[in-house]
Design goal:
By secondary structure, the chain is mainly α. The chain has 14 helices and two strands. The protein has a two-stranded antiparallel ribbon with strand order 1-2. It comes from Nocardioides panacihumi.
């Protein structure tokens, strides 16, 4: 008789590394926290970081398969962002005035990485593999509109407001931006998971919804296995973000040695933190489930802004130093052209290799200008 316990035992036996690596990574994080590692230790932490990323992707997919879409992609995006917020607040609390631009640079980097890097790679891979990347323009367009709205409110308007000197919000303006972004994020989640859930499910090349529970798909892993993976997902994500922070000192040393701007540190850390979403999105694109890949990309960008800004607004009550949120002119241009190209990509509901390539060019332009402003 083959029941849930037997499936669980087979799952554990086959995927034991996804259980051990997050635990080992957490132990290494406990040993290395607060230190300034060098040499071999940095390499070991890097290996464990990559292992924790791969493990988190697996456990997120197990949980997603149990709860169904779009809850799975929403869970991974929100989980990483919540931990990312904790990392930003921790760094700002310990860095003082030197971290006044940290929240802005991290949120902007995450948004560009998601809109151009993750979405662009998913579109390009799917189009190359299946001739055309097909998705639902109604759901994807709603997600992109949400990203654009909260992105402009939180990152562009501070550059032009006059109540406070510099690209900063006044207290009342920051409160309004925090409440607005959080309200819009909650409204989108309600739309995605309750009101119009079918808009965010994968579609077939003819535009019809795919049957994720059809006979050609594996059965859900079971509640017990999903709960275990959910716990291990949290452990793996904490390890990813924590080890990224530990590695940040080595990254800063490398950036200084190369003579690169300090902003590059935030870009590298954002890339590390977003690795789980990146790998998960590429795997979905290879499986011709571009809608889920875009759910991850735009959902992560949305959560990075919609959850981070309210948290930073609350934390600013006791944090010292200014909070710079307004983008620089070059950053605003990159954000504007990224949203424009994304809109033109999303409207038809299908994308060619050209669209993926355009997004990746913008992504590499972002990386290049971060190193050569």
């Amino acid at each position: 008789m083959t029941g849930p316990p037997h499936r669980l035992q087979a799952l554990v036996a086959r995927l034991h590394w996804t259980i051990s690596i997050p635990i080992i990574a957490m132990l290494e994080l406990a040993l290395a926290w607060g230190s300034h590692p060098h040499g071999v230790v940095v390499a070991i932490i890097g290996v464990l970081l990559i292992g924790a990323v791969l493990a988190s992707v697996h456990h997120a997919e197990v949980v997603a398969h149990q709860v169904g879409e779009p809850f799975g992609s929403l869970l991974l995006a929100a989980s990483v962002t919540v931990i990312e917020v904790g990392l930003i607040v921790t760094l700002m609390a310990s860095g003082g005035k030197d971290t006044s631009e940290l929240a802005r640079d991290t949120v902007f980097s995450a948004a560009i990485i998601c809109i151009n890097g993750i979405a662009g790679a998913a579109l390009l891979i799917s189009a190359l593999r299946h001739r055309m990347a097909v998705f639902n323009p109604e759901g994807t367009g709603a997600a992109l509109a949400t990203v654009a709205t909260i992105g402009v409110i939180c990152l562009v308007l501070p550059t032009f407001t006059t109540s406070h000197p510099g690209p900063e919000f006044s207290g009342a303006q920051l409160t309004f931006a925090a409440i607005s972004s959080l309200a819009v994020y909650i409204l989108f989640v309600f739309t995605q998971t309750v009101r119009h859930r079918d808009f965010f499910l994968p579609v077939a090349p003819d535009g019809t919804l795919r049957d994720l529970d059809g006979d050609d798909h594996a059965d859900p892993p079971g509640v017990r296995a999903a709960l275990i993976s959910g716990g291990l997902l949290v452990v793996a994500l904490v390890a990813v973000v924590g080890l990224a922070k530990v590695e940040s000192s080595a990254i800063e040393d490398g950036v200084d040695a190369l003579g690169l701007p300090k902003a590059v540190v935030g870009v590298v850390i954002a890339l590390l933190v977003l690795l789980p979403e990146s790998i998960a999105a590429i795997r979905q694109a290879l499986a011709e489930r571009v809608q889920i890949a875009l759910n991850l990309a735009y959902g992560s960008a949305m959560a990075s802004i919609g959850l981070t800004i309210p948290a930073i607004a609350i934390a600013s009550i006791w944090l010292d130093g200014p909070l710079v949120l307004g983008l620089e002119p070059t950053q605003m241009v990159l954000l504007a052209i990224s949203l424009l190209v994304a809109t033109l990509t999303v409207v038809p509901g299908r994308a060619k290799t050209l669209h993926g390539g355009l997004h990746l060019v913008l992504f590499f332009a972002f990386l290049f200008l971060a190193a050569n402003p």
